[in-house]
Design brief:
This protein has 14 helices and 14 strands. It is α/β, with parallel strands linked by helices. The strands form 4 sheets. The protein has a 7-stranded mixed sheet with strand order 2-8-7-6-5-3-4, with helices on both faces. Strands 9-14-13 form a 3-stranded antiparallel sheet. Strands 1-12 form a two-stranded parallel sheet. Helix 8 links the parallel strand 5 and strand 6. Helix 4 runs parallel beside helix 11 and helix 5 packs across helix 10.
Length: 394
């Protein structure tokens, strides 16, 4: 009898976390590694949020929380959805979880049966496919390209739908490509989905406020999609609160109740202090963190300009998030410094070992021709990192 379950043996290790671990190993050996692999803002959590957490500690918040979140936090989420997205939810439609990753896992657990298909436009966030597989679902990849800013067309969506299709998962702004679906583009996808009333949409909007073009759109804003859309969000990216681990969903009540039920058996409620801090974060205007978004835009323009000076990197202009996703297939089959580059994984490892810069192989995101490079780093680090990459590849 084998010790470990087939479930865990068949699961891939998170590529972003694996690269971060490899980079830490090299740092511990004394190597000067510049990390452009993790999706984590390099800003401190804003003072007004930290003060709210300190106040919660002083107010003796230390007990178990309601499974689906404090009532005051659910009200703050409802206010946020109405203010920022023009979406109306009730407390029964909100579930607070330990990060948006748990929110996604909850949805997969309550909606997926063995063999159910989940459509994922490529590239997609690194954990989508394995979360779906964990609950015996089947990821269906829809390949997009840099020519279309990595966005799925209505024709591609229609072609991917089968009698087994249960959901479509996507993020906008997208991790890893930074692409943003406009309201018109979402409406065009919705026009396909209205013909298939049993397909649900998981709209991951965790990067909502890191948007350089304005006008964030949500699939749930359409009346004919509202009751079929699970909107996933959280505070990790825009508020620089990755370690606080708070995510949430707005969903049809039946789905929210099911997520509450399964979370009650798996983890119970999220951290009490983090929840109290999140109440303050969400009740404030997003303009309180605009300084971060302004700096990310400067860094985006900086890194694009530097990458475009390297022959073999093909880039588009990301509209949000804090990543570039260049096509690097021009290097495949080449030998550089005695090392043959067969794929993006080889190139990512080459850049780590030769340039001392950590990136992530695009295959983990469903696109093996690309690298994900985070610009959640200082301008000085970005300039030095791309300089190293250019020198290593020349």
């Amino acid at each position: 009898m084998q010790l470990l379950s087939d479930r865990v043996l068949n699961m891939a290790t998170s590529a972003t976390l694996a690269m971060a671990a490899k980079a830490r190993e090299l740092r511990n050996e004394g190597k000067d590694i510049i990390g452009l692999s993790l999706g984590e803002p390099d800003f401190d959590t804003p003072e007004f949020i930290k003060e709210a957490a300190i106040q919660a500690i002083n107010d003796n918040y230390n007990s178990y929380t309601p499974v689906d979140g404090y009532g005051e936090l659910k009200e703050a989420i409802i206010t946020k959805f109405k203010r920022d997205n023009n979406l109306t939810y009730t407390p029964a439609q909100i579930v607070v979880s330990t990060g948006a990753k748990q929110s996604l896992a909850n949805v997969a657990a309550v909606l997926t049966n063995a063999g159910d298909e989940v459509i994922m436009p490529c590239p997609y966030w690194v954990s989508y496919a394995d979360i779906v597989k964990l609950f015996d679902g089947v990821p269906v990849e829809v390949v997009t390209s840099i020519a279309t800013d990595f966005k799925m067309t209505p024709e591609q969506l229609e072609a991917a739908i089968t009698p087994k299709t249960k959901m479509i998962w996507f993020s906008s702004p997208c991790n890893p490509s930074g692409s943003i679906y406009s309201a018109e583009e979402l409406r065009a996808l919705a026009d396909v989905l209205v013909k298939y009333p049993n397909i649900y949409v998981v709209s991951d909007e965790i990067y909502e406020h890191i948007n350089y073009v304005g006008g964030h759109a949500s699939m749930a804003q359409f009346e004919d999609m509202y009751d079929r859309t699970i909107t996933v969000n959280g505070v990790s990216k825009a508020f620089a609160m990755t370690g606080w681990r708070i995510g949430y969903i707005g969903a049809p009540e039946k789905i929210a109740r099911a997520c509450n039920k399964i979370q009650g058996q798996m983890t119970s409620g999220a951290n009490c202090i983090a929840q109290r801090a999140t109440i303050t974060a969400l009740n404030e205007s997003p303009n309180r963190v605009k300084y971060m978004i302004d700096e990310f835009k400067v860094r985006r323009d900086l890194i694009l300009g530097l990458l475009n000076e390297i022959e073999g990197f093909e880039t588009n202009t990301p509209q949000g998030a804090f990543y570039v996703f260049p096509n690097v297939s021009a290097f495949f089959g080449k030998t550089i410094k005695g090392k043959t580059i067969n794929n993006a994984s080889d190139l990512s490892l080459f850049l780590l070992e030769e340039a001392l810069v950590a990136t992530v192989d695009g295959a983990a995101f469903g696109n093996p021709n690309c690298l994900r490079i985070s610009y959640a780093a200082s301008q000085e680090q970005i300039i030095e990192a791309i300089k190293r990459i250019k020198e290593a590849l020349s």
